[in-house]
Amino acid sequence: MTDTESYQYWAFISYSHADTAWARWLHHSLEHYRIPVRLVGRETEVGPVPKKLFPVFRDRDELAGSAELGPALQNALRRSRFQIVIASPNSARSRWVNEEIKFFKSLGRASRVLALIVDGEPNASDKGQPQLECFPGALRFQVGADGQVTGDPAELIAADARKAGDGKVNGLLKLIAGILGLGFNDLRQRELQARNRRLAILASIATAISAVTIVLAVVAYQARNDALRRQQQAEDLLQFMLGDLRGKLEPIGKLAILDAVGQKAMDYFATLDQKDLTDAALASRATALRQIGDVRIKQGDMVGASEAIREALKLDEELVARHPQVTGYLRSMGDSVYSMGNAHYIKGETDLALPWLERYSKITSRLVAIEPANAEWAKLAVEANLNLGAVAFARTELAAAEAYFTKAIAKQRELVEADPGNEEFLQVLSNLHGWMWSVESGRHGWKAAIEHASRQSELHRRQLELSPDNANHRFYLASAGVRALRTESQMGPLEPDSPVLRETLRVTHELTQLDPENIDFANLRVVAANFPIEAHVATDKLHAAESAARQALELARGTYGKAPQNAQALRGLLLMLSQAAKVNLLLNDRSATRALLREAHDVSLPDKPDALQANLRLDIDLLDWWLASGTADETAAQVRAAESVKRVGASGGAVRPDLMLRHAALLHDRAGASRWFSQLTDTERRHPFLREFCRATASCGAPV
């Protein structure tokens, strides 16, 4: 693209997520900067000066959720006149900032890369202080046409926003001057003129305010009642912002707006004299603090969340001490207590979460005691038991978890019976049965687990009857079907024409037709597509299994192609490649099996794969090792399998027993294989693939 062609963006801002606040400021400042009229239209080396620098690209605004340098970001870089790098130690360590710079320079635009220093020191690496370095490698050195960083130093135009440097205002002006091809003084002169105008206006305003103050002093006494009325109106508005408005914004994920609303509320309270704070104002302040804390939790700032919520709790406790029977204040205190417990639970600190959630349960019981007929308090009591059950489950205390969930289910059923058309009540009851499915699956209570999965499905069908067009209800119905199928497969071979399997396949197909771009829907369809393969293999219908595996693999390839960074999409592709390879092995088609394994090895794992991804790669490596047995490739295959075992350990997970059995058998460790065989379920032992493996290797140490 040349200067004579059309660009979409004036600049592309590259920055580390840790410097988001700087990126927001820069993005807003560039797009809202008004270029002096006397300069507009002037011809410079980059073309005529425009009225505004709009638009400017910042990836978190333009491509929310994008974390990789994919085609969309590359296209945005191509269509940007300049690139501005927010330089800090954070960006110097950021892989993606470096990749964006490399790509932009490879377009032949190295002279159009600008930097704004916000922290650290330029070229500190050359002075033996790499921890202070603020320039990424691709910024410090030249980049070749092939996109590779060379060892030749790069010439760089950098503005310094630090107080010891240019400062924010002058740093911004230097960047704008560089983009427009103007001199810094051209813009600086405009800023000085604007500053003088502002000072003159402020002086006039100050004079006017003085005059008005004299008049107001005369009528101050009469205005007192009006002031109290306006304060009440302000507090009513805050209640709407923190209550009704939050209820509308939270479901659509507008965290930034929620954050701003909470902060604006706190700014208002800061203007009030403490002696003027009414109980309603104290309650609103607590709500604002709690909202700020909840937003911090969603943003991952647990320290900031805890600080805000603790301050909210102090105010709530003061109000409850003043009015112990006022349920509104008691409920607000419960919300703060729950938020503290939830923050610890999300961090995995179940020991710290438990006391808070137990206290929350006592508060909900107190609310029910004050107003036994209030359905809202009954709902909170159900949630309190669900929370305690979730903590017990996380601590693998299955009996305690079951007790909490059972109590919650009994109460939630009463709420559903009293209001059978309430979809929220139906969803909570479904969630509780999902938790019970997890408990029963955890202790291999397969019949009970299937019963809970079936009840989940029934509840989601009722939701669909109430809202036939609700895609989420369909998604939950299919998810419950997947749980039921997983449980059935533990009890014995699946039937290819199982009603649950037919329904799950139908619903997942409908979901992907409804929204082909929804990756969650696509991933669930891939998971469901695995069950027909297993059903056909279990009944020795290998050709039908091979056909089902081919179709499922195409779905998995398509989903992974749309979202290669999605963890579940990667798991789905590896699973289907493994399944297809196993079916072809059972059909004795080793050529097709090797082709599938080669494709699997070409699929890149993330630097830190999760336990499921690592186990799936080990499964594939063990297949490869088995095929290579007795050949010159066996040693290399064995090494890859050993590395995969280590990778699972590094992920924090454990290797599946069936994989450890195969690993021991391929090492001809019959005793080890026998130990692992004893840990398998009856269904796993009877699986046709494992039976064939044990028969062929004669090393499992178990009957075949």
SSE diagram, text form:
Layout: E1 9-14, H1 20-32, E2 43-44, E3 47-48, E4 56-58, H2 59-62, H3 71-78, E5 80-87, H4 89-93, H5 95-106, E6 113-117, H6 137-140, E7 141-143, E8 149-153, E9 157-160, H7 167-180, H8 184-249, H9 255-270, H10 279-299, H11 302-322, H12 327-346, H13 350-370, H14 375-394, H15 398-418, H16 423-442, H17 446-466, H18 471-491, H19 499-514, H20 519-538, H21 542-562, H22 567-586, H23 590-602, H24 611-628, H25 634-650, H26 657-666, H27 670-678, H28 682-685, H29 688-697
Parallel strand pairs: 1-4, 1-5, 5-6, 6-9
Antiparallel strand pairs: 2-3, 7-8
Helix pairs in contact: 7-8, 8-9, 8-10, 9-10, 10-11, 10-12, 11-12, 12-13, 13-14, 14-15, 14-16, 15-16, 16-17, 17-18, 18-19, 18-20, 19-20, 20-21, 20-22, 21-22, 22-23, 22-24, 23-24, 24-25, 24-26, 26-27, 26-29
Whole-number mean pLDDT: 85
Helix/sheet category: mainly alpha
Quantity of strands, as a count? 9
CATH C-level of the domain at 9-182: Alpha Beta
Please describe the biggest sheet, giving its number of strands, its sense, and whether it closes into a barrel. Answer: 5 strands, parallel
Summed up, the helix count is 29
Strand order of the largest sheet: 4-1-5-6-9
Per the CATH scheme, the topology name of the domain at 9-182 is Rossmann fold
Overall shape:
globular
How far is the first residue's CA from the last residue's CA?
66 Å
Report the β-strand fraction as a percent range: 5-15%
Query: Could you say what the CATH architecture of the domain at 9-182 is?
Result: 3-Layer(aba) Sandwich
In the CATH hierarchy, what is the superfamily of the domain at 9-182? Toll/interleukin-1 receptor homology (TIR) domain
Spatial extent as radius of gyration: 32 Å
Pick out the low-confidence regions.
Answer: 61-67, 217-221, 239-255
Helix content: 55-70%
